[in-house]
Each structure stands twice: as C-alpha cells, then as structure tokens.
C-alpha cells in the first residue's frame, strides 16, 4: 500500500467516524429528552394520583372516621362542642357549635 492509498483510507475512516459521531450525538440528545420527559411525566403522574385519591376519599367518606364518631355521640344526645362539651342536649335541641364540628 503506497502513501497515497494510506491517506485515502484515512479520509474514508475520518468520514465514517464523523458520521458515527453525529449519530451518537443525535441518539444522546434524544435519550436526554426522553429521560427529562419521563421525569416530568412521573411528577405529573404522582400529582394526578394524589388528586385522584383525594377525590376518591371525598366520595367514599364524606366525613372522616373521627367526625363519624362525633356524630354518633351527638346523636346519642351529648354536646361534642368545646362550649358545652359532654353536656346533655335537650330532646329537640340542636347545637350549631356541635354541627359545625361534625360537618365542617
Ligand atoms: Zn354543642
């Protein structure tokens, strides 16, 4: 192989390498974008799950367990409000402070 052939070979190799390098850069850029998009979707997904759970809980239990307990005690005829806490309610007496606590 003479020196001219050798230089031709190097030219060919250089061209192939620069095309390969461009491909590598393009793939790397695409991968970075995909990773970023994935991270954004993960955050978005987590937010939506939280929101969904929030809505789900609201529909299934309009009032919480502790509020249900308070309601039960109130229905049994006792005040659960801080104002008259533990005192008996009159037969037809309703208390705005108590209902505020139960249905807030
Ligand atoms: Zn009360």
UniProtKB/TrEMBL annotation:
Signal peptide: none annotated. Transmembrane segments: none annotated. Zn(2+) binds at residues 79, 81, 95, 98. The keyword Transmembrane helix does not apply. GO terms for molecular function: zinc ion binding. Its main location: cytoplasm. Its cofactor is Zn(2+). Keywords: Coiled coil, Cytoplasm, DNA replication, DNA replication inhibitor, Metal-binding, Zinc. GO terms for cellular component: bacterial nucleoid. It is found in: Cytoplasm, Nucleoid. Binds 1 zinc ion per subunit. Residues 24-58 form a coiled coil. Belongs to the YabA family. Involved in control of chromosome replication initiation. Inhibits the cooperative binding of DnaA to the oriC region, thus negatively regulating initiation of chromosome replication. Inhibits the ability of DnaA-ATP to form a helix on DNA; does not disassemble preformed DnaA-DNA helices. Decreases the residence time of DnaA on the chromosome at its binding sites (oriC, replication forks and promoter-binding sites). Tethers DnaA to the replication machinery via the DNA polymerase beta sliding clamp subunit (dnaN). This is Replication initiation control protein YabA. It comes from Floricoccus tropicus. The lineage of its organism: Bacteria, Bacillati, Bacillota, Bacilli, Lactobacillales.
């Amino acid at each position: 192989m003479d020196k001219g052939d050798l230089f031709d070979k190097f030219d060919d190799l250089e061209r192939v390498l620069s095309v390969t390098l461009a491909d590598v850069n393009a793939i790397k850029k695409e991968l970075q974008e995909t990773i970023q998009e994935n991270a954004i979707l993960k955050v978005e997904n987590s937010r939506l799950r939280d929101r969904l759970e929030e809505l789900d809980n609201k529909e299934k239990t309009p009032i919480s367990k502790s509020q249900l307990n308070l309601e039960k005690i109130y229905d049994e005829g006792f005040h659960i409000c801080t104002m008259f806490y533990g005192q008996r309610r009159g037969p037809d007496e309703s208390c705005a402070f108590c209902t505020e606590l139960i249905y807030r």
